[in-house]
Amino acid sequence: MAVPGTFLVPLLLLLCGPGPYPAAAHSHPGVECVLFNEEYMTCMWGSREMLKVNYSLYYRYKNMSDKVECKHYLQDQGVRVGCHFKQNELIQFQPFHVVINASIGGKTLEIPSEYMLLQDLVKPEAPVNLTIRNISNNQLQLTWATPYPKARCLEHAVKYKSNKDTRWTELSVNGDVFSLPSVDYEKYYTFYVRSKINKYCGSTQFWSEWSVPVFWGSNSTSKGTVEEQLYWYGIHTVLVPIASCLLLLVLVILLVRMERVWVILMPRIPNPSKNFDELFITHNGNFQEWAGVPKDVVESFKPNYSENICYVTELPPKDSHEPLWDSSNHAPPPVPGPPAAPSEPSPYQKSY
């Protein structure tokens, strides 16, 4: 039974390995270096979850004899995960070599890397200042600016979609102008632009991030983005009714509290009818009694004398045969005919 045991020990040692050193070398991830807009560069080789020990990065260019250690390490909770290179440490169009050393158990494990060219590692910044113009009835022109210092080394990609499309349309553009020959004024378009180093300046595959979108169409001024729609919908449906109710409540409170001010500013017209109720109800319209005039004064205004009736009689002319009449008889009706000629006055007899 001892013989089989002698074969198990080497087998376990073979499976588990002689120690942690080969395992650390095998678990080392690749190095990825990116030159951002030719302003700075980062070389990353892992994360805190993947790395158990600290690594040291050394680099050199082709014309340098000695290696230089990284001056600005990037750390994740105390574990080195990358290196940051400033602009004055970068030299393009020269082979760039990186060596990573790992110290494990008092021994140094060196992991070499291949030579790289920095012009192939450039990732430009996203385009800015996107502008849309109408150059004809149905044609649009999209222009933009780039923060990259060498604009002639860039190629661009434009993607656009209308509100009625289900897929994006992406086209390559060499310059910084894009023309869309046919547009529908009833649609709402969205445009994005990104950039990359062209084949004449490098062979990088790093595209910039997509730019901030720009919009055009029948709803571009009133509809806006989805966030703007939700913002204005909330204002119109929630804030406006609440504000209106609060304003109405404040006005009601002010009216109640300022009733005396309203009475001063707009006084009521008095009604004098109540002051004469006693005149018409109690005294039956007798003003003297209502006013309290003494009876002797009232009697003094009554007449205390009498006049005799005077009767007047008019005698007819001598030539007339009409019967006499007096004031007790009615006057005879007038007889139609020509007017009588004036005659001499005749004496009248009057009796009193």
Key terms for this structure?
352 residues; alpha+beta; Immunoglobulin-like; 3 domains; five-stranded mixed β-sheet; five-stranded antiparallel β-sheet; 17 strands; disordered N terminus; glycoprotein; IL2RG protein; Hempt_rcpt_S_F1_CS; cytokine receptor activity; transmembrane helix
Count of alpha/pi helices: 7
Using only CA atoms, what is the Rg?
A: 60 Å
**What would the average pLDDT be, to the nearest integer?**
75
Poorly predicted regions are: 1-28, 220-225, 346-352
The CATH topology name of the largest domain reads Immunoglobulin-like
Largest sheet: 5 strands, mixed
User: Roughly what fraction of the amino acids lie in strands?
Assistant: 25-35%
Task: Domain count, please report it.
Answer: 3
Portion in helices = 10-25%
CATH architectural grouping of the largest domain? Sandwich
End-to-end C-alpha gap: 190 Å
CATH C-level class of the largest domain is Mainly Beta
Can you identify the CATH superfamily of the largest domain? Immunoglobulins
Tally of strands: 17
Protein model, in words:
With 352 residues, this protein is α+β, with helices and mostly antiparallel strands. It has three domains: 15-120, Immunoglobulin-like; 124-223, Immunoglobulins (Immunoglobulin-like), CATH 2.60.40; 225-268. It is built from seven helices and 17 strands. It has helices at residues 2-16, 20-26, 226-257, 259-265, 277-281, 287-291, 295-300, and strands at residues 32-36, 40-44, 55-61, 68-69, 73-76, 79-85, 95-104, 107-112, 116-117, 122-123, 128-134, 140-145, 154-162, 169-173, 177-180, 188-197, 214-217. A five-stranded mixed β-sheet has the order 5-6-2-1-10, with no helix packed on it. Strands 3, 4, 7, 8 and 9 form a five-stranded antiparallel β-sheet that branches. A four-stranded antiparallel β-sheet has the order 14-13-16-17, with no helix packed on it. Strand 3 and strand 4 (68-69) form a beta hairpin.
